[in-house]
Amino acid sequence: MGILEKISDIEREIGRTQKNKATEHHLGMLKGKLAKLRAELLEPKTTSVKGEGFDVMKSGDARVSLIGFPSVGKSTLLGKFTETHSEAASYEFTTLTCIPGKMLYHGANIQILDLPGIIQGASEGKGRGRQVIAVARTSDLVVMMLDATKSYEQKRLLEKELEAVGIRLNKRKPNIYFKLKKGGGVTYNSLVKQPELTEKFARDLLHQYKIFNAEVIVREEVTTDDFIDVIVGNRKYLPCLYVYNKIDAISIEEIDRIARKEHSIVVSIEQDLNTDRLKDKIWEYLNLLRVYTKRHGEYPDFNEGLIIRDGATVEHACHTIHRSLAEQFRYALVWGKSAKHTPQRVGLSHVLNNEDVVQIVKK
Ligand SMILES: Nc1nc2c(ncn2[C@@H]2O[C@H](COP(=O)(O)OP(=O)(O)OP(=O)(O)O)[C@@H](O)[C@H]2O)c(=O)[nH]1
Ligand SMILES: [K+]
Ligand SMILES: [Mg+2]
């Protein structure tokens, strides 16, 4: 039996098993097996997924990938938001490779990748799905484009494809400490009460994965799926914005209904409806910060900010300014929200905040 057949067998079994306390353990083990098969499916091919036209250099401050079914308007968006033209047409699979464009917004240089439409079964290699998903993994934000005139089913189907290859959307990594050991067996501890995850399940799953020596500390309430994710590893946690396009073609009531969904925005790219708001949302979801630098005795230049990621330190800011600056670093003075007093004298590991002003003092 091939891997794909084994996968669909297990999926079928999961589908027909009723979910209740008595079957929970069995279902969890099946999911563990499924995750393992899917990982196998990806492994030998991951080095060759790049393929022609998908090997696009990362550039700018952040990367956004446009994921969606064919003809939802991805290339139309690229054409409107960037200087790059990507053929847009009414037939499906107009775009066949990865086409990068550059969007300048709030002083940041954001790389937007137009990609071929993906279809159901993409994660198993249908169409160019595997290449598209491999590119999605390298991005800082997934913009999932959906056709507002079509059924809501599309969203769930796309999510399923991305989930099957270990992409987790709008979710943070479960707080589980997991370390392989050379000996000593498996030690398992949970710091909080677990309504779903049992110690027996955790131990059986590790056994299924042939892990006999490890330390596990579960630090928060988690599901068995979360636990499987941590054991399988190689998960990618990404923010995702759901963009419902073509609202020019649906009723106001429908628009209102969709607009209330979580992490969602309604637009018409072609008719320029709500597109400025979309740019704002992309900016917001990328979690980028701007900090300003200043020289001794001078005012900061508020027209020239540095773009850094949320959580970035003074060291990250140094690297953004110049490759060797961190080596010559003595200390920095920081004004702004991250500073306890103004200015605060800090080291390389100081975490910066939006709109902070930094003065670097060299050796
Ligand atoms: N009504 C309406 N049509 C739109 C809108 N945006 C794009 N379209 C149309 O949708 C069709 C598909 O647009 P594309 O940009 O080629 O879609 P795509 O997602 O890049 O398609 P593939 O590359 O084939 O996957 C074109 O006929 C566009 O004119 C919109 O806001 N409203
Ligand atoms: K198209
Ligand atoms: Mg296209």
- What's the CATH topology name of the largest domain? Rossmann fold
CATH architecture of the largest domain: 3-Layer(aba) Sandwich
The CATH homologous superfamily of the largest domain is called P-loop containing nucleotide triphosphate hydrolases
The largest sheet, given as strand count, sense and whether it forms a barrel, is:
6 strands, mixed
Number of strands: 16
Strand arrangement in the largest pleated sheet? 2-3-1-4-10-11
Structural class by SSE content: alpha/beta
Helix and strand sequence: HHEHEEHEHEEEHEHEEHEHEEHEEE
| CA-based shape | globular
Radius of gyration: 24 Å
CATH class of the largest domain: Alpha Beta
- How much of the sequence is in beta strands? 15-25%
Low-confidence stretches: 44-50
Report helical residue fraction.
25-40%
Structural notes for this entry:
By secondary structure, the chain is of the alpha/beta class. It contains 10 helices and 16 strands. It is 30% helix and 23% strand. A 6-stranded mixed beta sheet has the order 2-3-1-4-10-11, sandwiched between helices. Helix 8 links the parallel strand 10 (240-245) and strand 11 (264-266). The longest helix has 19 residues, at 24-42. The termini are far apart. 31% of the residues are buried. Bound molecules: guanosine-5'-triphosphate, potassium ion and magnesium ion (MG).
